[in-house]
Design brief:
mainly alpha, two-stranded antiparallel ribbon, single chain
Length: 443
């Protein structure tokens, strides 16, 4: 017993920040699952433990895929638990605890600093303490502003319990969770400019990441130059959304036939919701043609930005990969953007993230196709949505078989933790330096 009571016994389990991140998100999934399994969390009858686990994982991972309709299945308490879950998942599970420690002490413990840098993937030179404070302040201000805007819109539309609907959707949008208290998501508000604008702004603020917000704030208040990370994030995010917007505006038949105003809003909103991984939809996804489905899948795979609330591969990862491709085609040894060279370690990290992400996506898709009987494009779209923590679906989530639910749960969890972080947490790294003979291979 003495051996098990000694805290040194647990050190091998938690000495790696990546492993602590994995355990931390797993703990919150199980805690949310426990509360959702309580009968007073249910609105209209029994919900199976597997469905509750699915919703718990979807909430903590800020995905938004649901096997049971949230407003019909869960009571107010259940919806409140789900809201707390995607708020924690969106901010990063260690953020609130770290801010509480900073309120009492001047610095964070070294282990918590290592975990924070792992969770947020901060660039060199960023102060974690300052970053966390800016994150909390900005989150509160953004969600309050979003609540006010959505309350005005929902009240005007005579939505029942407009206060709770505004609170729920404001947090859900900023955390890019995609959960809604409306059975058809935001389809009924497709032509509502205020709802579209507020949700879009909240989703973009969450998706571009707290690095950008903190960086811009410091550049304004302290006249410091904007980092290369921020420049790449802003350029990549808005250019990708614009391309998706134009494509859906002209290429999707069900959107083309809409009145111009609705067509403009619907195409832009669906491009934004895929890219930011917020997962709301103002247009039925199941009616989209094959080419627009592929375009949205690409946007979901690219995803949001590091240190934000969204998922996917991340914009900086994709652009680092594209930069390496461009440098290779031009015969250059260095990868550069905006006159700045990117370190080789970052390029290798981006390459590893892309390869690992593709492996997880293909593996998940393969097993999902084995157990599900739906159309190929619907299943692939579902897998991309789960791993990217997006929440968009072609309508097959409610028809998933038990093994299909388990596969999606695993994909959502890996997507929230981060595929490369998940891999690092599972495998043992070595620091031993070994000199090996060099030999060339054909590429």
């Amino acid at each position: 017993m003495k051996k098990f009571s000694n805290r040194n016994f647990f050190r091998p389990l938690v000495k790696k920040p990546t492993r602590v991140v994995l355990i931390g998100y797993g703990f919150y999934v199980l805690l949310t699952w426990f509360f959702l399994c309580l009968p007073f969390s249910w609105e209209s009858g029994y919900i199976s433990p597997l469905d509750n686990l699915f919703i718990a994982t979807s909430a903590i991972s800020t995905t938004g895929l649901i096997t049971v309709n949230t407003p019909d299945a869960y009571s107010f308490f259940g919806e409140f638990v789900i809201t707390c879950a995607f708020q924690i998942g969106g901010l990063g599970y260690m953020t609130l605890g770290s801010v509480a420690i900073l309120a009492r002490e001047k610095t964070l413990p070294s282990m918590r600093q290592d975990i924070g840098k792992t969770v947020f993937a901060l660039p060199e030179g960023f102060s974690l303490k300052t970053f966390l404070k800016h994150t909390i302040i900005f989150t509160v201000l953004a969600e309050i502003a979003g609540f006010i805007g959505l309350y005005v819109a929902f009240s005007s539309a005579e939505v029942p319990n407009a206060v709770w609907a505004a609170v729920f959707h404001s947090i859900s949008a900023f955390c890019t969770a995609g959960f809604s208290v409306f059975p058809s998501s935001l389809v009924d508000f497709r032509d509502d400019w205020l709802v579209n604008i507020v949700v879009t702004v909240l989703s973009l603020l969450g998706a571009i990441g707290f690095i950008v917000i903190s960086d811009v704030w410091l550049s304004v208040t302290r006249k410091t130059p904007i980092t290369l990370t921020t420049k790449i994030i802003l350029y990549a995010t808005f250019s990708s959304i614009a391309l998706g917007w134009i494509f859906l505006f002209f290429a999707e038949p069900s959107i083309v036939e809409l009145p111009f105003g609705e067509r403009f809003l619907a195409s832009g909103f669906q491009s934004m919701t895929a890219m930011t991984t917020v997962g709301f939809n103002s247009h039925p996804i199941e009616v989209l043609a094959a080419a627009p489905v592929l375009a949205m899948t690409i946007l979901m795979v690219i995803g949001a930005s590091p240190s934000g609330t969204g998922g996917g591969l991340k914009t900086t990862t994709i652009w680092a990969g594209l930069g390496a491709l461009w440098a290779s085609l031009r015969g250059q040894k260095d990868v550069a953007f905006f006159g700045r060279r990117i370190s080789l370690n970052r390029v290798l990290g981006a390459f590893a993230a892309v390869v690992f992400y593709i492996m997880m996506f293909l593996t998940g898709s393969l097993f999902l196709l084995l157990v599900q009987g739906q159309a190929f494009e619907d299943v692939i779209f579902e897998a991309a949505s789960a791993l990217g923590t997006v929440g968009l679906s072609r309508g097959i989530t409610g028809d998933l078989v038990p093994w299909g639910k388990i596969i999606i749960i695993l994909l959502m969890f890996v997507g929230r933790v981060g595929p490369i972080t998940f891999g690092l947490a599972l495998f043992k790294q070595t620091t031993q330096k070994v000199t090996l003979a060099k030999e060339d291979i054909v590429i």
